[in-house]
Amino acid sequence: MKTILIMNGPNLSMLGKRDPKHYGSGTLRDLENACYLKGIELGVNVQCFQSESESAMIRKLHSSMGVIDGIVLNAGAYTHYSIAIRDAIELIKIPVIEVHLSDIHNREDFRNTSVIEAVCVEQVCGLGVKGYLVAMEKLVEKYMTDDSSKALSDGASAEPSTPEALLGEERLALNEIDKEIFVLFERRMKHIDRIAKIKAEAGMPTQVPSREAEILERVGNSVEEQYSAAAKALMQELLRLSRERQKEINKEV
Ligand code: DQA
Question: Which of 123, 142, 158 is the last residue of a domain?
């Protein structure tokens, strides 16, 4: 499976506290969660990285070689003057789409210039968080096809060869899948909270055994047979956590 890196530069950790006119009201976490969900839809792994520091960003770009297939980069203010980040993008031979939440061409003059634009495959700006999702789609559709990555990589093979390298790549993919699972877990629990409030206010019972049995059966049938028992056990644990959460909410309402 291919991996997209979402890289955010300085001050983007402060989303939610920065000027909402330019940057919206959501947090960095909201933005990253939207990217993880988009990754599920597109069938790619998503890795998110944010740093206030130019050197950390450059190191992350270097270590992406042979591991990452496409990058969505909002370099923040570094966009306008970091030749070092520009050079790093150029040398890694990975397609990078430059993204900005705000429309940098319609703000202060010093934001009009991007020193990284020429080494990025495209620039997307002024679309807010949606711009990141659009960039992800573009990477998958236009720049991460097998032919295009070969063209960018100067013919050098990025396939890991040693067992350690293979293991490293698998573990990285697993970490990203775990993150996606927990984004979905958080979404599930938010629905549970809403359901619990509706039930508590209407005086309805928390536990409906027939519905739980139906969910377990559906889960068992939705995975390959070899994983069916494990998936049911996992679902049972989720149902138990949901029941506990509903009881807590019952006490609050
Ligand atoms: C930004 C625009 C930059 O000019 C600014 O320094 C940022 C955010 C954007 O997303 O609109 O930090 O990259």
Answer: 158
The answer to whether 45 and 87 have CB atoms below 8 angstroms apart is: no
Tokens (6 digits) for 128: 């807010």
Model confidence pLDDT, tens digit, residues 155-214: 444 555 688 777 877 888 888 888 888 888 988 999 999 999 998 899 888 777 888 999
Cα–chain center distance at 4? 8
133 with 25, same domain: the answer is yes
**Residue with CA closest to ligand 1 atom 12:** 76
Nearest protein CA to atom 13 of ligand 1, as residue:
76
Q: Give the predicted TM-score (pTM) of the model.
A: 0.70
- 79 Cβ closer than 6 Å to some ligand 1 atom: yes
Total structural domains in the chain?
2
> Domain range holding 228?
164-252
Instruction: Please work out whether the CB of residue 101 comes within 6 Å of at least one atom of ligand 1.
Output: yes
pLDDT tens digit string along 59-91? 999 999 999 999 999 999 999 999 999 999 999
Instruction: Kindly state if the Cβ of 213 falls inside 6 Å of ligand 1.
Output: no
